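Lab notebook, page 48
Experiment: co-folding of the full assembly
Goal: obtain a model of how the components sit together before planning crosslinking
Operator: M.T.
Materials (sequences as entered):
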Amino acid sequence: MRANSPQLTANRLTHGQILEWLQVVKDPEIPTISLSDLGVVRRVEVDATTGGVYVQLTPTFAGCPAMDYMKRDVERTLLAHGVPAVRVEISLQEAWSSDMLTAAGREALRAHRLSPPPVLAGQVFDLDFLEYAECPNCHGHNTELRTPFGATLCRAVHYCFACKQIFEQFKPI
Amino acid sequence: MTPQLDLLYRLADDQLILGHRNSEWNGLGPILEEDIAFSSMAQDKLGHSLQLYGLLHQLGEAEPDTVAFTRNAPQFHCCQLVELPIGEYDFSLTRHFLFDHAELLRFEALATSSFEPLAQVARKLRGELKYHALHANTWVKRLGTATDEAIERMQRSLDFTLPYALGIFETTELEPEIISTGLFVGEKELQARWLESISKVLAQTELQLPDVLIATPVSGGRHGEHTEHLQPLLDEMAEVFRLDPTADW
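Observation: model returned without errors.
Model output:
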């Protein structure tokens, strides 16, 4: 019997298995990072009786236009693995913070030449945080915030004085 | 109307209308970064209005699209400040500065609202609004300390816009209940916090804050009284929806 046949998976589905499958679902605009590492997958529940799966996603920014795509990609991926029923909900129950990015997620952002946001870790989210960025090219800190609004809602534009280059940062929030 | 509906309609309508106005800078910004900034803030604000109309829907009101696109001006609860045409960049910037300082403080206060679904949304929105306030501060400080022409234009805009900005804090009959039930700290308290907040930024410029004690607030918006600019905006905004309510794009 194939590992991903519906009957088998319904009996053996675990939380960890679902998360592993979801690793292939990437941000539609940053193809190096998975939704899990981005921190937008907040909850995964498996119904032990039916094998149905509930996934709760939260947007990085409330007006993010990619949420519908993310929702659809999660549904498609899990259905393709034979999950009998998938319900994906977009919720603000647990508001996204850039601290929800995993270590792997931060590396994935760097791989896409995006500066990862500084870790807040409970510190006051003030202007210093908004203005700070590490250059994704030289990793230097001699940088300046040029505009808090970039190509997408989640990106700010900074300038590196060492590289003399503009770069994008995934915004801290 | 319940205190919750009363408050939510005001919040949501402000976001929707100013979001739409900001989007009018798309393709017209004085520099590319500003074109993108106003378009991004428009997108944020439409996202915020959707969250707030979503809360209204959970409380039994119609679907967000229906609420946003089928009402006429007298049914809107936005303040008149947000509906004014974008005008010149100095006006749009000044409006953005005055409105978003109030908005950031408003959602910081709402993060502890007794109405938990609203508190949840507020905890999300306040972080995003910091970027709006940061953007406004940057440009107000830059232009407010630049050439004589820049300072003069910014001062004129500030003098013109301030009475409209005071209309943000217009209360409704339900204000005592809104405060006593812990839904929100109230408009009077918000206005005091706002005044302190904008004063700190303006003190770093050559601009003079007009005396708010002698200015007459432009009110009425919270009670459905609007300028002649709102209805044409609504007509334009709802053009596709009214042609085909099921259209998807």
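Interpretation: Confidence is low (pLDDT under 50) at residues 1-10 of chain A.
Next step: discuss with group before ordering constructs.
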